[in-house]
Amino acid sequence: MEKKSASLRPEFVDEWFSCVKPALFIHRDRLDLHYNKEEFNKLIAPFSDTENVAALLNKRLSVQANGIVYEPGRDGGIISMDGRPMVNVYRPSTIRPIKGDVAPFLQFTEHLIPDPEDRHYTLRWIATLSARPDIRMFYSLLLFSLAQGVGKTTLAMIVSRLVGLHNTSFPSSEQIIAKYKSWLVYKLVAVVAEIYEGDSRKTYNSLKSAITDSPIGVEEKYQRV
């Protein structure tokens, strides 16, 4: 009896992207979750009689992309970059604008940043992050105060939720000066609690390139370059 060749259901194929480099599988509805071949096959195993589903999916040109990009402001999924199909893993914030009174927020910023010019540029920075995430700004906010509890952390929490917590990282000083910079990958905002500790300026100096360089080179742990 002739053995029937394995095939994939069109509904299943439509759920996935197959990336060439890095060799990963990405679900269309969960662009933040990436699986290598072994992980993907194990994930799908309970729902398939075929051991190597990854090999079958790799044969489908419609789901294949050359690589992964993070392009805020563009739709997630396969997009064209320099004529090549790429998977854009950016996901926008879930917060949507509604009509309301902004006075409490403006009063808060007046308390936090008394200087009118500094406050003006801070509000512009926040507005650009939330409304135009596609614009790369080459400066960041440095908030400092002699007193504790004036609202710096509150502002950081507001900004992180405006852009989406999935687009925000909270690295420690040790992570910033480390060789591997995973805290920079697929993020719009990084909230750093302390950048100057004692007599060391390593954290401050390490942040310079992350703020001013474009594009940013990142080396991730356990990832092939």
Describe the structure in your own words:
- This protein is of the alpha/beta class.
- It has helices at residues 10-13, 37-44, 53-58, 103-112, 116-131, 152-163, 173-177, 202-212, and strands at residues 16-19, 24-27, 30-35, 64-65, 67-69, 77-81, 84-88, 168-169, 189-190.
- The protein has 2 domains: 10-88, no CATH class; 103-212, no CATH class.
- The strands form 3 sheets. A 4-stranded mixed beta sheet has the order 3-2-1-4. Strands 5-7-6 form a 3-stranded mixed beta sheet, with no helix packed on it. A two-stranded parallel ribbon has the order 8-9.
- The N and C termini lie far apart (47 Å).
- The model has no long low-confidence stretch (mean pLDDT 87).
Q: How would you briefly describe this protein structure?
A:
The chain is an alpha/beta fold. Helix content is about 30%, strand content about 15%.
What's the helix and strand layout?
Blueprint: H1 10-13, E1 16-19, E2 24-27, E3 30-35, H2 37-44, H3 53-58, E4 64-65, E5 67-69, E6 77-81, E7 84-88, H4 103-112, H5 116-131, H6 152-163, E8 168-169, H7 173-177, E9 189-190, H8 202-212
Parallel strand pairs: 1-4, 5-7, 8-9
Antiparallel strand pairs: 1-2, 2-3, 6-7
Tally of distinct domains: 2
Helix percentage: 25-40%
Rg to the nearest angstrom? 22 Å
Helix-strand string: HEEEHHEEEEHHHEHEH
Output the number of helix runs.
8
> Unreliable segments (pLDDT under 50, ≥5 consecutive)?
none
The tally of beta strands, per DSSP, is: 9
Shape: elongated
Spatially, the strands of the biggest sheet line up as: 3-2-1-4
Q: Main beta sheet: strand number and arrangement?
A: 4 strands, mixed
Distance N to C terminus: 47 Å
Structural class: alpha/beta
Mean of the pLDDT scores? 87
Strand content: 5-15%
